[in-house]
Design brief:
heterodimer, A: alpha+beta, 2 domains, globular, B: alpha+beta, three-stranded antiparallel sheet, 3 strands, 14% strand, elongated
Chain lengths: 302, 106
C-alpha cells in the first residue's frame, strides 16, 4: 500500500512532537499520512519523505539519504530576514530525529493548492521572482535539482526499461551541461504546484518544502512549467501569465525582454526528462509519460 | 433662531428626486444615472447606494472575469514556432490531466 499509517511507535512520537506545538493533541489524536487528493498514488521508497498530519501540525519524515547538516542550513536560511514573506515557516528551525532514525521537520498545517484549483500563475511567477532576487546572506547549500536528475538516471540504469538506453545518454549529457550555471541565485530547487501553501490568516501563497532549496541556476524553478508547456501539457495562457509575472517582478532567470528560451532550455529539458522517468515509475500515468517521452526523443534526435 | 438657543438636532434628509427621475429605494433620495463600461447604474445622490438594472450584475461579473483572465501579452519572438525545437506547440492539443504532473516531486 502506498500510503499506510505509520507504525505505533512513530505515531506516538509524532503525537508527542505535535503536542508540544498544538494543545489540542491528545493520546488518541489521529496521525494521518498526507495524500494529495486526486493524484495517482506512488509507492513510498526509503529515499522518499513521508508527511503526516496531527491536528494543526505537519511532521515530515525525510528520506533516509537526507543530510542533516544541509537540511539544518536550509531551515536556518528560510528563517532569515524577509524570508517569512516567501516561505511557510517551520515550527522548529532545526531537524529533529525520529525513533526510526529518520530526520524530521515540524510545520504548521496550511492550505495547499489542490489539483482542482486553477493555479494562481501570476502569483507564482512573482513569488519565484522575489525569491530569486533575495540577497544571499546565509550559507545555503547547492540547489537540489542536480540530484533529482542524477536519481532519475540512476533509476533508468538499475530498473528502467531496456529500450531506454538513449534516455540515459540524454540525461548524462544534460547533467554535464548543467554542471556550471552561468549565474546563480537563491532558488526553491524543486518547484511544482504542490509546493504552495497559505496559512488561514495570511492568504497569500508561500513556498513549501526546503529539501532542495539553495543556491543554483534559478531556471530550475521555471523548468517544470516551461518544460510542460513545451511538451504540450500546459496551455499557452498559463505559461505566458506565469512568465510575464515573473518578468514583471524582475525575476533574474530570464532576460527582461526577448526570447527567454535560451536561458530556460537546459533546465526545462532536464525537468521533462525527470518528469518522464517519474511518470514511468508511477502506475496509471501513461497519459503523462507519453508526451514527455516524445519530447525527450525529439531532444535526443535534435 | 435665538443665538443663545442650543443647536437643534436636524434629522438627515436626502436630496429629493427631481421630477421624472428615480427615488432611492433605501433613503428616498434622488438617483442619478451613470454609464460605466456599457453598464447603466443609478446612484443615489444622498446615501450613495447603487441600483443595477436587471442583468447588469451578471454583465459586471463577466467583465470582471474577462479582466482577470485577460489574455497574456503574446511574445513576438519567433512566433508561431516559438519555443524549443524539441517542443510540441503546433498541434495545440492539450492532454487532459497533464497538469497533474505539475503537482509531483520527481
Amino acid at each position: 500500500m502506498p500510503h499506510t499509517p505509520p507504525p505505533v511507535e512513530i505515531a506516538d512520537w509524532i503525537r508527542s512532537v505535535a503536542g508540544r506545538q498544538d494543545p489540542r493533541v491528545g493520546p488518541t489524536t489521529p496521525v494521518v499520512p498526507l495524500v494529495t487528493r486526486g493524484l495517482p498514488t506512488r509507492p513510498v521508497a526509503p529515499e522518499h519523505s513521508q508527511v503526516f498530519i496531527c491536528a494543526g501540525v505537519i511532521v515530515k519524515l525525510h528520506g533516509e539519504r537526507t543530510d542533516r547538516e544541509r537540511l539544518a542550513r536550509r531551515l536556518h536560511c528560510i528563517g532569515g530576514t524577509d524570508m517569512d514573506r516567501l516561505w511557510i515557516q517551520p515550527l522548529i528551525y532545526a531537524p529533529i530525529t525520529a525513533p526510526n532514525d529518520r530526520l524530521a521537520t515540524v510545520w504548521p498545517r496550511v492550505t495547499v493548492l489542490s489539483t482542482i484549483d486553477r493555479p494562481p500563475w501570476a502569483d507564482i511567477g512573482s513569488l519565484l521572482a522575489r525569491l530569486h532576487r533575495m540577497p544571499i546572506t546565509d550559507d545555503p547549500p547547492r540547489l537540489g535539482g542536480h540530484s533529482r536528475l542524477a536519481r532519475a538516471i540512476e533509476y533508468l540504469r538499475s530498473d528502467g526499461p531496456a529500450d531506454l538506453g538513449w534516455l540515459i545518454e540524454l540525461g548524462e549529457s544534460l547533467a554535464g551541461q548543467l554542471e556550471h550555471p552561468a549565474h546563480t541565485t537563491l532558488a526553491h530547487g524543486d518547484f511544482h504546484l504542490g509546493q504552495l501553501g497559505h496559512t488561514p490568516l495570511r492568504r497569500s501563497w508561500k513556498l513549501l518544502d526546503v529539501d532542495d532549496f539553495g543556491i543554483g541556476d534559478p531556471a530550475w524553478d521555471l523548468a517544470r512549467p516551461a518544460g510542460f508547456w513545451a511538451a504540450g501539457l500546459l496551455e499557452d495562457e498559463a505559461w505566458f501569465t506565469f512568465l510575464n509575472a515573473y518578468r514583471e517582478a524582475g525575476g533574474p532567470a530570464v532576460p527582461a525582454e526577448g526570447d527567454p528560451w535560451p536561458s530556460l532550455d537546459l533546465a526545462a529539458r532536464a525537468a521533462v526528462l525527470v518528469a518522464a522517468v517519474q511518470a514511468l515509475r508511477t502506475p496509471n500515468s501513461e497519459d503523462t509519460a507519453a508526451p514527455l517521452l516524445e519530447a525527450c526523443s525529439r531532444m535526443h534526435a535534435g | 433662531m435665538n443665538p443663545t438657543d442650543p443647536p437643534r438636532y436636524e434629522p438627515y434628509t436626502s436630496p429629493q428626486p427631481a421630477a421624472g427621475s428615480m427615488a432611492c429605494p433605501k433613503c428616498g433620495g434622488g438617483m442619478r444615472t451613470y454609464e460605466r463600461n456599457g453598464i447603466h447604474l443609478e446612484q443615489c445622490s444622498g446615501c450613495r447606494g447603487v441600483f443595477l438594472d436587471f442583468g447588469e450584475l451578471e454583465h459586471l461579473t463577466q467583465l470582471e472575469s474577462r479582466f482577470s483572465q485577460q489574455p497574456p501579452v503574446q511574445p513576438a519572438y519567433g512566433q508561431p514556432g516559438y519555443g524549443p525545437t524539441w517542443g510540441n506547440r503546433d498541434g495545440q492539443r492539450y492532454r487532459k490531466g497533464g497538469l497533474s504532473g505539475l503537482f509531483f516531486s520527481s
